[in-house]
Amino acid sequence: MIDFYYWITPNGHKVTLFLEESGIPYNIKPINISKGEQFGPDFLRIAPNNRIPAIVDTLPADGGEPISIFESGAILLYLADKTKKFIPQDLRGRNECLKWLFWQMGGLGPMAGQNHHFVQYAPEQIPYAIDRYVKETSRLYGVLNKHLSDGRDYICGDYSIADMAAYPWVVPHERQRQDLTQFPALAQWLARIQNRPATKRSYELAKTINVAPTVDEKAKSILFGQDAKTVS
Question: What is the H or E stretch that residue 68 is in?
């Protein structure tokens, strides 16, 4: 059984995609990050970076004590190895999948996240910052579009954790000021994943957790006002 600490963010969606695709039993434990629940001491023992998502595997493969994992990429890799699903089992295929997983974790996610911040949430519009992150998001879309342009259905051929990692960060493309008509292979890939039954279940689940997400001024102070004192 997987205890899943979740909120309706792109990184949270990554894990629901895997859980719904794999059929592994799990319990949702919502962590409302707009209310600061990520700073609770019980959650920090699981996720010392005070970020969702996180999981606790109560039945790890070694039969020992429960294992806690934080960071969405680490969670996807752990679950893929646990279930032997959605990651190639051969050396070359596995490493191809890991390259694209790390590409999302180190590139697409952080850059699109900064795009969201400066375009949607910053208290003042800073043209340089907006231009910087909108362009870098576009470049990364271009990288993935080129990779998908050889006719493959998914990033590594078969559907994998690389797709699950990237997909939720492309869903809000309009908020990122990206025009998918400029990325036809990427647009087809997005639609292909969107139409998977497990994807539909994942995003319907999100609606039951928080129907009308809002980021008011209090939430902004919680989400964007952290420094070292937050975790000390």
Answer: strand 67-70
